[in-house]
Amino acid sequence: MKKILGIVTSILMVMMLAACGSNKNELVMATNAEFPPYEYHEGDAIVGIDVEICKAIAEEMGKTLVIEDMQFDSVITSVQTGKADLGAAGLTVTEDRLKNINFSESYATAAQVIIVPTGSDIASPDDLEGKRIGVQLGTTGDIYAEDIADATIERYNKGFEAVQALLQGKIDAVIIDNEPAKVYVEQNPDTLIIVDEAFTYEEYAIAISKENTQLLDDVNAAIKKLKESGKLDEIVNKYISADN
Ligand code: ARG
Q1: Ligand 1 binding residues, C-beta < 6 A
Q2: Residue 8 above 70 pLDDT?
Q3: Which atom of ligand 1 lies closest to the CA of 89?
Q4: Torsions phi, psi for 145 (to 5 deg)
């Protein structure tokens, strides 16, 4: 009996070790795949710039990337609580977020822009006063919209839903990142335009737990390599054409 227990225990231990080992070989990326061209669904797959950058980072580190798709406002929390290793979701570096997590080196510059229906009287950020503005919940667009005098903010789970509401005339404008804005406006070229003057300029980076400084170093080293080798540009150019 003792012998059998011993064998069972050894088998269990080997299984546990194997489980730990495989986890260690994974790099879990938290994202919200509602943000083309950075992360979006293509059939059953999640693809985009962030996905490819993180795959390349994982490869540099000898690990396999695992993608966890979730609500945008859960991405940073999941990194903070250790459920995910990386938060990669077109995340803008902000002072407030830096209180809770670390950010890697920046890998892209971006802007918050304003989408309006053609013929709108909104021609600059100042014209947003008193308007009904749609944003994706928890994004920098949401945070900045709060400072607009007398504006009504409508918060949606997906940027796409804000654009739908704009098309239906339920809101007057959408504040969203420039690249997804281009994608949504291209889908509705006769009805939507992007206001020339941007709302803000920002930097995207990868979120990493404050506890995990080794991972921060590894990710930064990988990003540096990807920049130097031209691989980062290659990924970006695959999704964003230079002429738009
Ligand atoms: N850059 C904005 C922010 O960090 C929006 C990012 C939205 N990303 C997404 N995957 N839905 O708040």
Answers
A1: 31-32, 34-35, 39, 72, 89-92, 136, 139-140, 177
A2: no
A3: 10
A4: -60, -30
